[in-house]
Amino acid sequence: MAGLLLLPIFLIVFWVMIVMPQKRMRQAHDALVASLEPGQEIMTTAGVYGTITRLEGETAHLEIAPGVVIRIDKRSVGAVMDAPAGTIGGTDLAAELGDGQAGASLEESDEWRDGRQR
Known about the structure:
3 helices; two-stranded antiparallel ribbon
């Protein structure tokens, strides 16, 4: 008799702990995919970063390097990045490091050599 009472309790716990969170995650991802627009910088579920250049049905064209465009399924988009291209954490790299140093490593920058901190 106690076994008959435990089965519905386990089913309810399973539903609340597993099914409902998965449903919420799927709905959030569907909303993300529906909101995609050309010009947005995204990260795919495989970890590829790029900028959407064109949307066609269920596919998106993603520029991952200057002149290099790949075609992906829109469902493989994992996240839309907040920071604009050419920035890290909202900091403009070209303005921060000066002309010609945007690709320089931290060790090559003047601040590192001079021991200055911000």
